[in-house]
Amino acid sequence: MSMLRTTFRSAYWAIAGLSFGATVYAVFNCTPDEATMGTIQKIFYFHLPLAICTFLSCTVAFVGNIAYLWQRRTKWDDLSAAAANVAVLLCTGVLITGMIWGRCAWGQWWTWSPRLTFSFLLWLLYVVYLMVRTSVTSPQRRAIVSAVYGIVAFLDVPLVYLSASLLPDIHPGHVQLAPAMQLTLAFCFIPVTMLAAGLIAVRFNLNRRERLVSDAQQSEYAAALPFAAVGGAV
Amino acid sequence: MIRSLQQIGLLTAKDLRIEARTRQTLGLVVVLGILIVTVLGLGLGSQHQTGSFGAPAVLWVAYLFAGVLCFEKTMGLERQDGALAGLLLSPIDRGVIFAGKLLSNLVLMLVVAAAVTPVGVLFFGFDLSPAPGGFAMVMGLGMLGFAAVGTLFSALVSSTRLQGGLLAMVVFPVILPLVIVSTQLLEKMFREGRPLEASSLAMLVAFDAIFLVASWLLFELILEP
Amino acid sequence: MNAGQYTMVAYVIVGVLMWGYAAHLFWVGRSLKRREMRTGEKP
Question: Is the whole-model pTM more than 0.95?
Answer without folding.
Answer: no
